[in-house]
Amino acid sequence: QVQVVESGGGLVQAGGSLRLSCTASGLLFDVHAMGWFRQAPGKEREGVSCISGSGSSTYYEGSVKGRFTISRDNAKRTLYLQMDSLKPEDTAMYYCAARERLLCPSGVGVRGEYVHWGQGTQVSVSS
């Protein structure tokens, strides 16, 4: 049984930083591309970033480019999202997800292109 668990969310002031982590069990971690999504109240879930199974390819949604960094440690079966220069508009529930493919879709992709999901971790940025 696949389990995906996020951690690291919290409340931070604008301009601050947070690092999210995601552990995945029940799958061969290094053959799955992994992604981060977020969903704000009343909005659709949107893709934030994707990283290929080897970690050699990364993609970012436009508004987070240059501020967020996705990475993975395959030995630890852990995915990370370093979020710097946070803005109030980054406030959302953040979800980790795994694809059934080694590579990311064209760009970050959409919700339906990911199979295994975590329960989410809340990120709140105050102005």
Can you walk through the features of this model?
- The protein is mainly beta and 127 residues long.
- It is 0% helix and 46% strand.
- It has no helices and 11 strands.
- The protein has strands spanning 3-7, 10-13, 18-25, 34-39, 46-51, 58-60, 68-73, 78-83, 92-98, 116-117, 121-126.
- Strands 2, 4, 5, 6, 9, 10 and 11 form a 7-stranded mixed beta sheet that branches.
- It starts with a strand and ends with a strand.
Strand residues, percent: over 45%
| Structural class determined from secondary elements | mainly beta
Quaternary arrangement of the chains shown? single chain
Profile the largest sheet.
7 strands, mixed
Average pLDDT figure: 97
CA-to-CA gap between the ends?
41 Å
**Helical residue percent band:** under 10%
Number of helices: 0
Output the radius of gyration.
Answer: 13 Å
Principal-axes geometry comes out as globular
